[in-house]
Amino acid sequence: MRSRIQHLTDDQIEAEVLATRNDPSAWELLPPVPPSSSPRPAWMLRRKHLELAARFHVLSVLHRFGLEANLSLAQPDNVDITVLGRSGQTVTIDVKTVDGTREWLVDPFSPRKRHYVVIVAFSPEGANEILAPCAYIVGSEELRKFVTRRHLTIISLDALSQEFAALDAWQLILTEQAA
């Protein structure tokens, strides 16, 4: 028995959509969805959701600078984002998250050339307004030297700013990508 379902090619589907794009009767109306009256669920504020938000924040900033950057969901070897350099080499980024504090509990990271750690700091929970997160950008090799030399397990974000001028130091990635 043959199936009566017609299998259309991508070109046929595109032609059909383009032919009916100005015909309102050809499209299904979407039901309106009212805004929620309940507060945001607690699971939305958990760390894993902020980590994803942090990755997309970094990715969006890189795209605003005109870089070709891609999110790596598998996260091999502490790589969350890859940036394609002009010379064909890649710049890799490991995104870390800080939520409501001015200190970063040092997570494992892999120091190597052309690899950066970007620490995205979100404003404290319960703040009256939601502010854009701050990003602290440091080369992974320099950060490893800093951590091991001082035997640190917690790093103040202010110390990163003073030691590396790390706050919004996107130019590090921009110059590395251009090389």
Question: What report would you give on this structure?
Answer:
With 179 residues, the protein is of the alpha+beta class. It has a single domain, classed as Trna Endonuclease, Chain: A, domain 1, CATH 3.40.1350. The chain is 31% helix and 21% strand. The protein has helices at residues 10-20, 47-64, 140-150, 157-164, 171-178, and strands spanning 68-71, 81-84, 90-99, 103-105, 115-122, 134-139, 154-156. The protein has a five-stranded mixed β-sheet, sandwiched between helices. A two-stranded antiparallel ribbon has the order 4-7. Strand 2 and strand 3 (90-99) form a beta hairpin. The longest helix has 18 residues, at 47-64.
Main features:
alpha+beta; 7 strands; 5-stranded mixed sheet; 5 helices; 179 residues; Trna Endonuclease, Chain: A, domain 1
Mean pLDDT: 86
> What do we call the CATH topology?
Trna Endonuclease, Chain: A, domain 1
Provide a count of the helices.
Answer: 5
Return Rg in Å: 22 Å
* Gap from first CA to last CA: 61 Å
Order of helices and strands: HHEEEEEEHEHH
User: Which sequence of strands runs across the widest sheet?
Assistant: 1-2-3-5-6
Amount of helix: 25-40%
Low-confidence stretches are none
Q: What global shape is seen? A: extended
Number of strands: 7
**CATH architecture classification name:** 3-Layer(aba) Sandwich
Largest pleated sheet: 5 strands, mixed
Count of the domains = 1
Beta-sheet strand percentage? 15-25%
CATH class equals Alpha Beta
Summing up helix and strand content along with how strands pair, one would put the structural category as alpha+beta
